[in-house]
Amino acid sequence: MATNREFHARSLKDPEGFWAEEARRIDWHKPFGKVLEYTNPPFSKWFVGGETNLCYNAVDRHVKERGDQDALVWISTEVHQKRAFTYGELYAEVNRFAAVLRDLGVGKGDRVLIYMPMTPEAVFAMLATVRLGAIHSVVFGGFAAASLAARIDDARPKVMITSDAGMRMGKVIALKPLVDESMRLAKHPPRHVVVVDRGIDQKMTLTQGRDIDYAQAREKQRGVEVPVTWLESNEPSYILYTSGTTGKPKGVQRDTGGYAVALAASMRHIFCSNPGEAYFCTSDIGWVVGHSYIVYGPLINGSTTIMYEGVPMRPDAGIWWKIVQDYKVTSMFSSPTAIRVLKKQDPAWMKKYDTSTLRYLYLAGEPLDEPTARWVSESLGAQIVDNYWQTESGWPILTACPGVEDTPRKFGSPSFAAYGYRLKLKHEETGKEVATGEKGVLCIAPPLPPGAMSTIWGDDARFVSTYFKSFADEMVYTTFDWATRDADGYYFVLGRTDDVINVAGHRLGTREIEEAVQAHANVAEVAVVGVADSLKGQVPMAFAVVKDSARIATPELAAAHEKEIMATVDKELGAIGRPSRVCFVTALPKTRSGKLLRRSIQAICEGRDPGDLTTIEDPGALEQIRAALRG
Ligand code: AMP
Fold first, then answer.
1. Pairwise CA distance, residues 202 & 164, whole Å
2. What residue's CA is closest to ligand 1, atom 23?
3. Mean pLDDT across the stretch 288-297?
4. pLDDT tens digits along 64-102
5. What is the model's pLDDT at position 6?
6. What are the residues facing 238 on neighbouring strands?
7. Which of ligand 1's atoms lies nearest the C-alpha of 496?
8. Pairing status of strand 135-138 against strand 238-242
9. How far is Cα 495 from Cα 538, in angstroms, rounded to an integer?
């Protein structure tokens, strides 16, 4: 057995040999020729010429060996239901869904936009899409109609799939009206919308000729089998939009073969799930963690994946641990925010159920603070694995690999670079690698490993300029995170270098929220910053200059106006982007060249020193921020 250090060293010294071995973990319809083609940096092609399919690897290949084993168990504490599907049943459902899509003309390379709550049908829809060689774009159910329309116009889907509604904390979240509105707003709306009616929103209506009731369409596809469309390894499997520094979300494009191999390898080396064991990831299919570790990773591995619709506190704070007990979960994946929420509850909930099967709890998406890591580790008795990654990487960049070697953890650190990643910590200005303990920008020397994004959908130039142009001395992929590395090689992630903020593990661009605020007719200018929050990590705060100040003339009017602006954000972007406060000022702090001093505003909000202000145009503007916070 190699040590983790040896394993990592080998992945970098002989990437082709290393990944050729890992590629045996999946089934190939046609073997690949070259393992890595890197003739057009920074674009890398993995397993060139090989043909495979994500759905085949996640479903078909398991039917013979484990057809009667549960593949997907769905538990909803919102609608009080449980549904389980064996690999055999999953195969049947996915084929029926694929047949419905095929009848609507969906084929290789077409896009299918999925805007759904956490239901088994969402998983069937994803698998059915890739089965046909089509490309899905799942949009998180918390995004509003305008955001949805922007994604429609970028991805240009042939078909959209939705449901009448989702539920959160017992409240109905209607989705179909948002879909209808997005269809009106989009310049290139799809021809058809497939609607999985859950019977939750009784007011839901279908548009004749455009909307298809899934239950009826499914009825016609009893026992139908749809052949897998084999894709060359580098052909796209999906697009997933993520926030950046501009208001326009980026469509992160993923390949097929590299992604399947990367996930299969990670299930073994990082997530330590054996085929047949239950694996529980509490994320949402709208995020990258859901794509990789609710759907594709565990299914490719032959695990039983547990999908949960609900919150960690309902019906009580023991629900997740009850699930661990009932299904004998061995590996679980969640977020630091969820654990911080549970930490506030009676610790007895952690002890009420038998969680002895749980070997590892993986936490990712945002910094895992040391007290939370220590608390959950002690209360649960499982090993905690903090892992750091991004929508772009598709799987962990920094992590311990307990499947390779049980290296000791340091709370507050996601351990080391994962195999396949050549990491560098570079000085922001000089580009030189920083010394031990010094803060640097976390970068990856290309080629990016299998599973990482291949490009930005429809915009290769933006892929290169966004990620690979931060340093003049060498072309490296910038993660936009600050980090340090200690003498033992452990990394500590300090936060983003750009204007991306992290709210409860959800990534949002300050620019994106600013645009949503500005959609209110009375807002002339706005600055949004992320402010530290003990529960959610960060929350957005907005400082707005209004056109008509009569509307904020009294504290009552200002409070009403603040609510109105928040509602505009809900409508434009979705409640996930809603600022915790909208403060009114008459000027925003800017440099003389007109750049917003977001970092100084953020520092003041967090009670820190605003830093170097020699280039500020109007120092009074900062005073206004202070006054607004006091008021
Ligand atoms: P997303 O693409 O939405 O997954 O967001 C990725 C960003 O979340 C990263 O660039 C980090 O800023 C942050 N992040 C993810 N995982 C961690 C972690 N384990 N520790 C610290 N920050 C993290």
1. 8
2. 366
3. 98
4. 999 999 999 999 999 999 999 999 999 999 999 999 999
5. 98
6. 136, 254
7. 12
8. parallel
9. 11
Q: Do residues 99 and 84 touch, judged by C-beta distance below 8 A?
A: no
User: Do 515 and 572 form a contact (C-beta atoms < 8 A)?
Assistant: yes
Q: How far is CA 507 from CA 203, 370, 528, in A?
A: 32, 21, 14
| Tokens of residue 509, six digits | 């661009």
User: CA geometry: angle at 221 spanning 164 and 26, to 5°?
Assistant: 90
Q: CA-to-CA distance for 338 and 283, rounded, in angstroms?
A: 10
Query: Ligand 1: distance of its center to the CA of 222 in Å?
Result: 43
**69 phi/psi in degrees, rounded to 5:** -80, 145
Letter for the amino acid at 433?
Answer: E
Terminal alpha carbon distance of the chain: 62
* Ligand 1 atom 21, closest CA: 367
Using alpha carbons, select from 456, 469, 389 the residue that is nearest to residue 244: 456
Return the H-helix or E-strand segment holding 533: strand 523-533
Q: Give me the count of residues in the chain.
A: 631
**Is residue 538 within 6 Å of ligand 1 at its C-beta?**
no
- C-alpha to C-alpha distance for 331 and 327, rounded to whole angstroms: 11
Q: What letter would DSSP give residue 488? A: T
For residue 495, give the ligand 1 atom closest to its CA: 12
Cα–Cα dist 274/113, whole Å = 32
Q: Does position 592 have pLDDT exceeding 90, yes or no?
A: no
Contact indicator for 446, 44 with CB cutoff of 8 Å: yes
pTM for this structure?
0.95
Q: Name residue 86's amino acid.
A: T
Q: Where are the beta strands (DSSP E) in 153-276?
A: 159-163, 165-168, 171-174, 192-196, 211-213, 231-232, 238-242, 250-254
The number of beta carbons lying within 10 Å of the beta carbon of residue 82 is: 10
Residue 120 alpha carbon to ligand 1 centre in Å: 27
The rounded distance, in Å, linking the Cα atoms of 388 and 417 is 9
Cβ of 304 closer than 6 Å to ligand 1, yes or no, is no
| Ligand 1 near 481 CB (within 6 A) | yes
Other C-beta atoms closer than 10 Å to the C-beta of 435 total: 11
* CB burial string 349-385: b at 16+ within 10 A, e below: bbeebebeebbbbbbbbbbbbeebbebbeebbebbbb
Looking at residue 65, the DSSP 8-state letter turns out to be: H
CB-based contact 481:495 (threshold 8 Å): yes
Q: What's the one-letter identity of residue 502?
A: N
Closest C-alpha residue for ligand 1 atom 4: 390
Dump pLDDT digits (tens) for 5-27: 999 999 999 999 999 999 999 99
CA-to-CA distance for 500 and 512, rounded, in angstroms? 9
Give the model's pLDDT for residue 249: 85
- d(Cα 144, Cα 180) in Å, to the nearest integer? 11
Cβ-proximal residues to 380 (8 Å cutoff; 6+ apart), any chain: 350, 355, 358, 361
Residue 226: name the closest of 407, 98, 39 by CA. Answer: 98
CA distance 303 to 358: 14
Q: Are the C-beta atoms of 26 and 237 separated by less than 8 Å?
A: no
Sequence-ordered strand ranges (E) for 169-270: 171-174, 192-196, 211-213, 231-232, 238-242, 250-254
- Cβ proximity of 425 and 485 under 8 Å: yes
Q: Is the CB of 624 under 6 A from ligand 1?
A: no
